[in-house]
Specification:
With 449 residues, the chain is of the alpha/beta class. The protein has two domains: 2-85 and 394-433, Urease, subunit C, domain 1 (Roll); 87-384, TIM Barrel (Alpha-Beta Barrel). 29% of the residues lie in helices and 20% in strands. The strands form two sheets. Strands 6, 7, 8, 9, 10, 11, 12, 13, 14 and 15 form a ten-stranded mixed beta sheet that branches. Helix 7 (209-221) packs parallel to helix 8 and helix 12 runs antiparallel to helix 13 (370-376). The chain is globular and about 65 Å long. It starts with a helix and ends in a 19-residue tail after the last strand. The structure holds zinc ion. Zinc ion binds at residues 91, 93, 121, 343.
Length: 449
């Protein structure tokens, strides 16, 4: 079966990226027939479907029985395969310290692993804009990138990561990493952030509730998103949520909402008080989650961060994977949309990108049903990236961003690790053509010093 459709695929030349879908039909229509559809809209899989692509867009989705052949269209028998919207990573860092070898390796593994778009949550936007453009035009294999310009209080800019991202300039005084205080001209600061090409402003650390509110209002007035850490120190989760930011990152940062763990700055974070969580659901977080649900704010939970953090056996209690997963589960039960973001990469030797681990953690640890974990990495992630009009579901008119897998991910989300090919903006990337990473590709000299 596999040989049959791969042979059919081999006959296809990958079409050029089309602007506006104005190519003649004969040049660019492809129909994937008899495929099982998981469109991230319906809760279940739909067998024997026909998905028609034209240029870089999805043209039609129908039952294969009602499919009317299109003259000169390429037809591919995708029987036995499952098609999903291209996966979207909602928390990456490709340009903290700009390293082309590193970024290209990560992006290549992502694309061939089913990821067609990614949010980047702070880095050197001079470099991010470069790789964003190259991936968009197909000059390098990689997902679409939606990056941020960071804002934080002046005291944050002693952090070495800000120096790595501002090489050649002064950390805190660049358009992509701005130090903000009460004297800042906020409309000008937001305009500068927009000028970098950023999709959003990232509110990182050391900002007061008042400044968080002012930046958020101004950003929305100027038509740019706001993606925030759950706690911005001293601004607490309640301040961040009530300011109306679009996405809240890091589920464990929500614990700072609980009384007694208030910290003035990011670098003064303290241990948490586990007693606050001994009685089951936190009522304080319940209020927060219901506000998030009402306002449609996405929680970028990043469970993988807590799965990967080193335990401190005798040290103060940190929010660990078990607690982070419990909080994510509470948020999910409260109806908060949860997106799949990793904030880290797997080893160079791993054949798949870290997003697969996050999706698995969402089901295995946070208790989401497979369909909701899939939505976290597709339809909800598209919303987190501000791209819900363009991607995240399989619907006519959206970008032709798709991943085809061999095994049913609704049985077990780890079945997403059976990618046969990825289609991004109509362009085909066959898993069999994937060149694995080499040792050293993901080395980041100097970053942890
Ligand atoms: Zn991050």
């Amino acid at each position: 079966m596999r040989t049959r459709f791969l042979t059919a695929l081999a006959l296809l030349a990958a079409p050029a990226i089309a602007e506006g879908g104005s190519q003649p039909i004969s040049a660019s229509v492809r129909v994937y027939r008899h495929v099982t559809l998981i469109d991230a809209i319906s809760a279940s899989a739909q067998p024997d479907m026909a998905v028609t692509l034209e240029g870089d867009r999805i043209r039609a989705v129908s039952s294969d029985r009602t499919y009317v052949p299109i003259p000169q269209a390429e037809e591919i028998d995708a029987r036995g395969l499952y098609v999903l919207p291209g996966l979207i990573e909602t928390h990456g860092h490709l340009g903290t310290q700009p390293l082309r070898r590193y970024a290209e390796a990560v992006m290549r593994r992502q694309l061939y692993g089913g990821i067609t778009a990614a949010r980047d949550l702070a880095g050197d936007t001079r470099f991010l804009a470069e790789i964003q453009r190259e991936a968009l035009l197909g000059e390098i294999p990689g997902p679409d990138i939606h990056f941020v310009a960071l804002m934080a209080g002046p005291s944050f800019f002693s952090d070495p990561r800000t120096k790595a991202s501002a090489q050649g300039a002064m950390p805190g005084q660049t358009a992509w990493m701005q130090a903000i205080d009460d004297r800042t001209d906020i409309p000008l600061a937001v305009a500068k952030a927009r000028g970098t090409g950023a999709t959003a402003i990232k509110l990182y650390a050391n900002l007061s509730p008042r400044i968080v509110q002012r930046i958020t209002d101004e950003a929305h007035r100027q038509g740019i998103k706001v993606w925030a850490h759950a706690t911005v120190f001293p601004a607490l989760p309640v301040d961040v949520v009530h300011a109306g930011v679009d996405v809240v990152s890091h589920v464990c940062s929500l614990v700072y909402q609980i009384n007694g763990v208030r910290a003035g700055t990011y670098h003064q974070r303290r241990a948490i008080d586990p007693a606050a969580f001994a009685e089951g659901d936190s009522p304080q977080l319940a209020k927060l989650f219901s506000a998030m649900r009402r306002q449609g704010q996405v929680l970028d939970a990043t469970l993988r961060v807590y799965a990967r953090q080193a335990p401190i056996p005798a040290g103060p209690r940190r929010c660990d994977l078990a607690l982070g997963a419990r909080l994510a589960n509470q948020a999910w039960r409260a109806g908060v949309p949860i997106s799949a973001g990793t904030d880290g990469e797997t080893e160079w030797s791993d054949p798949y990108p870290s997003l697969h681990e996050e999706i698995e953690l969402l089901t295995d640890k946070a208790g989401l049903p497979p369909i909701d974990a899939i939505k976290a990495a597709t339809v909800v992630a598209a919303r987190a990236a501000g791209q819900e009009q363009e991607m995240g579901t399989i619907e006519p008119g959206k970008l032709a961003n798709l991943v085809f897998v061999e095994r049913n991910p609704l049985d077990d989300v780890s079945n997403l690790r059976s990618v046969v090919f990825t289609i991004k903006r109509g362009k085909l990337f066959r898993r069999e053509d994937y060149r694995p990473l080499a040792k050293g590709d993901l080395d980041e000299p100097g970053l942890n010093q």
